[in-house]
Amino acid sequence: MTRLSTLMLCAGALLLTAPAHAAEFEVKMLNKGPDNQMMTFNPPFLKIQSGDTVKFVAADKGHDAESIPGMLPDGATPFKGKISQDISVTFDKPGLYGYRCVPHFGMGMVGLIEVGGSTANLDAAKQAKMPPLATKRMTALLDEAVKNTTAQAGAGGAVH
Fold this sequence. Notes:
This protein is α/β, with parallel strands linked by helices. The chain has three helices and eight strands; from the N terminus they run αββββββββαα. The chain has a single domain, classed as Immunoglobulin-like.
């Protein structure tokens, strides 16, 4: 094998073993969403991979983003943004992350991030204490996460 062939083979091997680049997602904090829902995150539900970052953007002033106690995977670090300021959070642990806008929590301003296709902490997330409207919205988001995970599991086992 020539020296050039050896170098090309080594370069190809390095490209195959290089880590995938983490993605960045954006969630806007809004007074009114595109669906006319008041006090909302847009999008309210995200599916991302471990190592991805979510930037919570204060598109409208008076909002923040903070993890909801009891709605994090085991070992995950809670996060807390400041009012009217953007915050970027990198999610390393697979599982469900519930978050809220503290000033508008009672108005149902909550969101959910599913990391790594895992809903392992679903039962714990369902037990988190929230105001009634927040509970209603979060229940719908948790149902969406379960539906997506079930659909993926079903698709993976399909026989053609």
